[in-house]
Amino acid sequence: MHLARRALVAGFAICGATTNGLIGTHFIPSAHDHGMPETTAAGLLAVVGLFDIVGTIASGWLTDRFNPRILLAVYYQFRGIGLLAQRYPERRWRVVIVGGVSGTGRLGGHRLDELAESFDCVSAVHGWGLSIGVDIVDPATGGPDAGRTRRIVNGARERDVLIGTTGLERSTLKIRPPLVFTDEHTDLLVAALDRILP
Question: Is the overall model pTM greater than 0.70, yes or no?
Answer without folding.
Answer: no
